[in-house]
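Tutorial handout. Part one gives the primary structure; part two gives the three-dimensional structure as tokens.
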Amino acid sequence: MHRVYVETSVISYLAARPSGNLVVAGHQQVTRDWWDRRARFELFVSEAVLQEAMRGDGAAARQRAEALEGISILATHPAAESLAVSFITAAALPAKAAIDAIHVALAAVHGMDFLLTWNCTHIAMQ
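Part two.
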């Protein structure tokens, strides 16, 4: 079974109210479709995902928390923290994307097969 690190943007799309923006609505539908098939994967998040998911609107935060129930939480690891700093230092990611660097580093250090994200600015860059 493939191991998947689920980054916060996926949980946010999953729990968000339907969007009137066609692109965003498409992302939401693809996310829901994937979520319905998630049992084929072993899912993981981090404390960073949990913290980000609890920000913002209380009702939406509760929905995100419900979606995260039962998902394994990866331990913080000194090697991941060091790797995240290296991403910033090497300018692979800007300093304002420190939390994104943590997501990528944790997924790498813990040997995830996939990092699932909708963050196309700092994580799923082209």
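Part three, for discussion. The radius of gyration is 14 Å. Helices lie at 8-15, 22-36, 47-53, 58-68, 78-89, 98-109.
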